[in-house]
Every structure is written in structure tokens, then in C-alpha cells.
Amino acid sequence: MISDFDTNTIYFSERIKTDNRFKNTYDQITSILKSFGVKPLLLPNTNDIWARDYMPIQVNGTKYVEYRYDPDYLQGNSEDKETRELKTYPDIVCDSIGLKTKKIDIILDGGNVVKSSKSIILTDKIVWENRRKYSEKELIIKLHELFEVEKVVLIPWDEECEFGHADGMLRFIDENTVLISGFYETADTDFKGQILKSLKESRLAWEWLRCSNNESENNITYLNFLQTNDLILIPKINRREDNIAFDQILKYFPNYAKNKRFAQVDMTEIVKFGGALNCITWTTKE
């Protein structure tokens, strides 16, 4: 599995460049990337900015798994056509950039796949989404095969978040350790216990990203950072916890600090629409 640590190419939906709501954020990010000598690429034929969710998951140099991107939150109905129109069709995007993929029938969002080279972590929303075709056991076996990993770890879905993504809950520090948002340490004892039980059963260790004595749900934004093999961009949301989160993340990822390949990005324009830096990017190893 190609982990975030392995990637070296960054893509954005072309929508983020052309939509005036996001122009300031896009200009800020590209300016920072330029200072690092990085030029991002744009994905054509997209209908929204959340590139992570609909673009394929890279397994190795040539294998890209294109899942069925059909999330419940974009189903829409006769009275809500606008929601449905936001759906991007990854096969059209992939054809536009000449990318060959392995298509599968599993319903999935890329934002719900947190990966290292040997493991993937997802919320158990994936079980609910695929309940009509796969049992949980069948689904886990299929995910092992498709993504060529040793561990498939299911953590509980925070149903306060309709998207059901794992990338705001935790991220890998290294192959054996994850960093969990401090919000989940204090918000709900039972829910915390379920997360830790899943990690223990998979023999994964964890640390907590603690930003304040009174963690709020806003703090899950900080783990939605952009990471490649040589840079890390960390969200800020104009709260007093911004700098604490920034310092804590750099403590857990010291190589970026040592090489001075890090920055904060004001994500207030983006966050109010439901995502941050990991959500708006698609990273690959090329």
C-alpha cells in the first residue's frame, strides 16, 4: 500500500481554483507549495472540491483501486437535486488524465481510508454502506485482497459526522502507531473504549493530539492535514488551539520539523463546508 509518507505528487480539483469561495485558500496553499518547490496538478471534470473522497486509492506503482463512489450524503432526492449534482464521477476524471484503474463494487469514500504501508483503518460505516452485498467478514477479506495489507482495522463511526470518515479521527505516525484527536479522549467514554479496543486487537499503539483542557469537536480539523513524503501542511481555524495543535503534530512528525518542510494553512474558508487539507487533495507516488 502506498502510504501518505510515500507520496510525492499533489492534485486538487480544478473547482477549488475556479470557485471564488475558495480562491484565497487555494492561492495561499499554492504559494506555500511553490516555496517548497512543489507545483500541484489539477483534476478536470470534477463537480466538487473533495478530491480525496472520489479519487482512486493507490496500492502500488501501477494499481489504483477505483471504488464505487456513491455516498449516502450525496444521494439527494426530487427536492434536493443540487446535492446529487455535486457528485463527481471518478471514471470520467480518471479517463481525462489517462489513469487506468481497477474498478470494484464496494461503496467507499477515500476520506474513510487512513493508511500505512501495511494497514488501513476505516470507520465501520463501510459495513453499513455495503450491507446488502457483503457481510462484515466478507468485506474485510475483500479489503485485505484489494489493498494488499496485513491489517484492516474498523473503528466506530462517529454518527455526529454524516460523512463517516476516519481521516479526522486519527492518522498514522508510523507503521505501528496512530495519533488520535484529543476530542475522542474526553467526549464519550464508551466511544473512546470502542476505538481503543479496535486498535488493541490490531496491535496498534496510539498517542493523543491534545490541544486544550476542554477539547471541542472543532479540534478534529487539525488531523485533516496534507502529508507527502517531504512536507506537511497543518490546518489552522483561527482558534487559540491552532498553535498548540501545530506544535504537537510537529512533535509527532519530527522529520518535517528537522527539514523545515512544514507550514500552517488558514482553512476557515473550507472547514465550514465540511473538510480540510486532506479532503481537498489527492496524493500519489509517481
What topology emerges from the helices and strands here?
Elements: E1 9-13, H1 14-18, H2 23-35, E2 41-43, H3 51-54, E3 57-58, E4 64-68, H4 81-85, H5 90-96, E5 102-107, E6 114-115, E7 119-123, H6 125-129, H7 136-147, E8 151-155, E9 170-174, E10 177-181, H8 183-186, H9 189-201, E11 205-209, E12 226-227, E13 232-236, H10 242-252, H11 254-258, E14 262-266, H12 268-271, E15 281-284
Parallel strand pairs: 1-2, 4-5, 7-8, 10-11, 13-14
Antiparallel strand pairs: 1-15, 3-4, 6-7, 9-10, 12-13
Verbal overview:
- This protein is an alpha/beta fold.
- The protein has a single domain (4-281), classed as L-arginine/glycine Amidinotransferase, Chain A (5-stranded Propeller).
- Helix content is 31%, strand content 22%.
- It has a three-stranded mixed β-sheet with strand order 2-1-15. Strands 3-4-5 form a three-stranded mixed β-sheet, with helices on one face. The chain has a three-stranded mixed β-sheet with strand order 6-7-8, sandwiched between helices.
- Strand 12 (226-227) and strand 13 (232-236) form a beta hairpin.
- Residues 78-82 have low confidence and may be disordered.
